[in-house]
Write a structure and sequence with these properties.
Blueprint (H helix, E strand, L loop, with lengths): L2 H11 L2 H11 L5 E4 L8 E7 L2 E7 L8 H11 L7 E5 L4 E5 L6 H7 L7 H15 L18 H19 L6 H19 L4 E3 L8 E4 L2 E4 L6 E3 L1 H9 L8 H19 L5 H30 L8 H15 L4 H9 L3 H6 L1
Antiparallel strand pairs: 1-2, 2-3, 3-5, 4-5, 6-9, 7-8
Helix pairs in contact: 5-8, 5-9, 6-7, 6-10, 7-10, 8-10, 10-11, 11-12
Length: 348
């Protein structure tokens, strides 16, 4: 790569102040900045290479030094959770210079494995990280992240209503009568009340295979800035019923059993198996339906079709779990109505 081209590219990617920040932190100006593939968030990421070293630059809006990302990163690191190191920050510029964890996600490792059993040791590592996160002691005074936010009834219902709007109404074109709308709201409330009354632990909130990076066969957790209190099953559903991979039922059960064993050994938390599985099912309905709302919203609001391919698998999971736990629910009836239409809607 020609130096002139590097400079032109740098000027296109970063402002003079941003480039100056990098030069000051790296102690040299002969660095290369390359954009990394983005996700659904508004943050932008770049790989910065400088000699034999590489870093990741996160570019965002201006932030306070006690922004949730930095606060949660510090707390997670103090409790043995593997998170990227923060090398430097420029709050007024919206910049963070982070450890480079590479490009290998748990999702990619999953699909590269010829035999699912070969990837299960990495899923056990992911459970180990969850055990560390869920073992963080919750203080009495919940004044800062991740303790000042929670999956209470209001927040859980907001997520379901978000999915109702973007998945059912905007994407699938479902029109509810006033009576149906009230019935669905009542079902949502029952689901969320059940979950909100569970014992709360610190939850990552978005614990899936794209937010788990692999560096030298060791797992590292990213995208943790929205951590909050909630039932342990929220993160477990996110991991084992992740829309981006397809764990077998046998693998799911192995991971859930491993979690319970480790929770008992590491933190002395004993779960009643029947209740644990019931809450896991109810959380599956809530979490996976919320994911459908997110996937649909990316298309409705931004015409981003990348996530629509995950809708059938995810809504099927909601439907199967409703058949088991709430077979006569309106939510299940509505899902059965839209399932045959999804392929055509996605392709149109």
């Amino acid at each position: 790569m020609e130096i002139a081209h590097v400079k032109d590219s740098l000027e296109e990617l970063l402002s003079e102040k941003e480039a100056s920040f990098l030069a000051q932190q790296l102690g040299r100006e002969d660095f290369v900045v390359l954009p990394l593939a983005g996700d659904a968030s508004p943050r932008r990421y770049y790989r910065v290479t400088c000699g034999d070293e590489s870093f990741v630059l996160m570019q965002w809006e201006a932030f306070e030094i006690e922004t949730p990302f930095l606060v949660v990163q510090r707390i997670f690191a103090e409790h043995g959770v593997s998170v990227p190191k923060v090398h430097a920050v420029a709050p007024s510029l919206g910049l963070m210079l982070l450890e480079d964890l590479g490009d290998l996600t748990l999702e990619r490792r999953f699909w590269e494995s010829q035999d699912q059993k070969l990837v299960l040791p990495y899923y056990k590592q992911a459970i180990d990280q969850l055990i560390a996160i869920h073992g963080i002691e919750v203080p009495d005074e919940k004044t800062h992240p991740p303790f000042n936010l929670a999956f209470d009834t209001e927040k859980l219902e907001w997520e379901l209503n978000y999915a109702r709007k973007y998945f059912f109404e905007d994407f699938c074109g479902v029109v509810l009568t006033e009576s149906e709308s009230k019935s669905l709201a009542h079902e949502f409330h029952l689901i969320c009340e059940t979950l909100a009354h569970e014992k709360r632990v610190v939850c990552h909130r978005d614990y899936h295979s794209r937010n788990i990076m692999m560096k030298k066969n060791h797992l590292n957790v990213i995208d943790f800035q929205d951590a909050r209190l909630g039932p342990a099953q929220y993160d477990l559903v996110s991991l084992v019923y992740d829309s981006y991979v397809e764990l077998t039922d046998e693998s799911v059960n192995l991971m859930l059993n491993y979690y319970r064993k480790e929770a008992l050994e590491k933190h002395g938390r004993q779960f009643d198996d029947e209740h644990f599985e019931y809450i896991f099912d109810i959380q599956t309905i809530q979490r996976c339906f919320k994911a459908c709302g997110s996937f649909a919203s990316f298309w409705v609001t931004r015409k981003d079709k990348r996530y629509l391919q995950y809708l059938p698998r995810t809504i099927d999971r909601v439907g199967l779990t409703l058949k088991k736990t709430m077979p006569k629910s309106l939510l299940r009836e509505l899902i059965l109505d839209v399932q045959p239409l999804l392929s055509e809607l996605i392709e149109s």
